[in-house]
Design brief:
Distance between the termini: 99 Å
Strand order of the largest sheet: 1-28-27-26
Strand content: 25-35%
Largest sheet: 4 strands, antiparallel
Number of helices: 11
Radius of gyration: 35 Å
Number of strands: 28
Length: 530
């Protein structure tokens, strides 16, 4: 007796996704640890030196965390109003932050004491950064000004007032202590040179600017605002190099990782996108539980911290030692299991392979017995239709091939017909299932063509009407696609003709040049004879 051939449902399987090296690398950050702060997370900044502590600015304090223990090691709470933009100096010893009173404070990280107190702004200061030399500080305020301070004398040196709205973003050049870039809610990005005390560059981002950052080379800076990230070449007069629009809500923060080779953007859509700076393509996405307001990455990429609007910070930590230990333990377990298996069978005279029966699906058992109605019932269960619709479609396809679907559909209760039509309408738009389900819909209409009058006004009648509309819509969509395909074929044919014409012109040109060269050679020969 020949072996029964099982119904093939694998033809509908989707292609497997291939994980890129970037995806594997960033997935090793693992499940985040959530820590609750006292308010929305305004800013996160990592110390550039080991052990890579990170400062979280929220509410009226700046808290400094240890990335390994995930505990607060320093708590700077000497603010009367909300604190903003706490950031480290490049040696990790000093921290500067603004507040809602327009004050700028400079702290010693180890002692938490205030070393400098800069006053002059008339509105909240949302961002503060050290300049490249470490001896000056730049502050960006809602009073529409950017101020440049000298740490030694505790005085402001320059004030720039070119913006016409709040300034909520800014950055300083990593290579030049004199270059400052600011971004405002007036959609403008301005670059200043403290030596000339003037604005040297002005650009329009197109949306209120939320974040700015320089690449390590200092020649390229990146802005975020609205749903786009723009990349500009400062050395080429602010020429826009690229525009990235991968978020569907406002982008709130930018950070660099992997020594400036990767760019991270956080958004109110709860996603953190990671881009390859070389290609500006998204290489990985990290989801969060709420809208992202700030993010920070340690210098060695071992810790990623995201701050959210509900006051939660998510600390993602890559535990390299744990990965190595797990890998070593796994190898030891495998070697022990292999040795144990070999020892068991070394003394045996003959090794008999284990016999296993192939598992047959319930609908295949029904098909073997030609019980088409029961086979269809077994795949019309909610658990099968919802989790494995490819099995349902595979059986319908097999019944159509056997010319048995009409028999399986005849004399059905209204509840089954409603469930069957619902399945058709839900999955007929899936390109993997469309041909089979269109045929099934036509067979269903043929089977119940004479019963439409008794279905009038019932739920089944309404479902048939909806199915008819859906089939017409699919027909229209296919027609539209065929029109587009025809246009593309015409464009392709025109391009081929144009290319062929260009090749003919080139061939004629080469031929004429050859004839001209031959005539010149003959003339020269005649002259030589004379």
């Amino acid at each position: 007796m020949s072996k029964f051939k099982k119904t093939n449902a694998q033809i509908y399987a989707k292609t497997a996704t291939v994980q890129s090296p970037d995806t594997i690398y960033w997935k090793k950050l693992g499940i985040p640890t959530l820590v609750k702060e006292f308010g929305a997370i305004d800013y996160i900044d990592f110390s550039p030196v080991e052990p890579y502590l990170f400062a979280v600015t929220a509410s009226v304090r700046v808290q400094i965390y240890n990335p390994v223990t995930k505990l607060v090691v320093k708590n700077i709470s000497k603010f009367q109003e909300g604190a903003h933009g706490g950031s480290f100096r490049k040696d990790g010893n000093l921290l500067v932050a603004g507040d809602d009173l327009g004050k700028v404070r400079l702290f010693d990280v180890s002692s938490k004491s205030i070393l400098r107190f800069f006053t002059g702004h008339k509105a909240p200061v949302h961002r503060t950064f050290f300049n490249a030399d470490g001896h000056h500080v730049s502050s960006f305020s809602d009073d529409k000004t950017v101020r440049y301070w000298d740490i030694a004398t505790e005085k402001h040196i320059n004030t720039f007032s070119e913006h016409t709205d709040y300034i909520r973003a800014g950055c300083t050049s990593p290579v030049s202590p004199n270059i400052i870039v600011s971004g405002g809610y007036d959609k403008k990005i301005n670059m200043y040179d403290t030596r000339t005390k003037e604005k040297v560059l002005s650009l329009d981002h197109g949306s209120p600017v939320e974040s700015l950052i320089f690449l390590p080379s200092g020649g390229i800076f990146i802005s975020a605002g609205g749903t786009s990230v723009n990349v500009y070449d400062a050395l080429a007069g602010g020429r826009k190099i690229a525009q990235l629009s991968k978020h569907h809500k406002t982008i709130t923060c930018l950070q660099l990782a992997s020594d400036g080779k990767r760019l991270l953007s956080g958004s109110l859509d709860r996603h953190v996108k990671i881009y390859d700076i070389a290609t500006y393509q998204v290489v990985h996405t990290i989801d969060n539980s709420n809208a992202v307001l700030s993010l920070g990455v340690s210098k060695n990429d071992d810790t990623l911290v995201t701050g959210m609007v509900d006051g939660l910070i998510a600390i993602h930590r890559r535990d390299a030692d744990k990965d190595r230990d797990d890998s070593a333990k796994s190898k030891v377990r495998q070697s022990k299991a292999r040795a144990r298996y070999e020892n068991i069978f070394d003394s045996a005279d003959e090794k008999i392979s284990e016999f296993r029966h192939d598992r047959i699906e319930q609908f295949d058992r029904m098909l073997r017995q030609y019980e088409y109605s029961k086979a269809l019932d077994s795949v019309m269960l909610p658990v099968v239709m919802g989790k494995a619709p490819e099995k349902t479609v595979a059986l319908i396809r097999e019944l159509i091939r056997r010319k048995g679907l009409d028999r399986a559909l005849k004399g059905r209760a209204h509840s089954f017909l409603v469930r069957f039509i619902n399945f058709l309408m839900r999955n007929i738009g899936d390109y993997r299932f469309t041909p089979t389900l269109v045929d099934a819909a036509n067979i269903l209409l043929d089977v119940y063509e004479d019963d439409f009058e008794q279905f009038a006004g019932t739920e089944v009648g309404k479902m048939f009407i909806n199915l008819s509309r859906r089939l017409k819509k699919e027909e229209q969509i296919i027609g539209d696609f065929l029109e587009v395909q025809g246009l593309l074929e015409m464009i392709s044919a025109a391009a081929d003709i144009s290319q062929a014409a260009n090749e003919d012109e080139k061939a004629q040109s080469v031929l004429m040049e050859g004839l001209q060269a031959s005539m010149n050679a003959k003339k020269q020969a005649v002259i030589n004879i004379d």
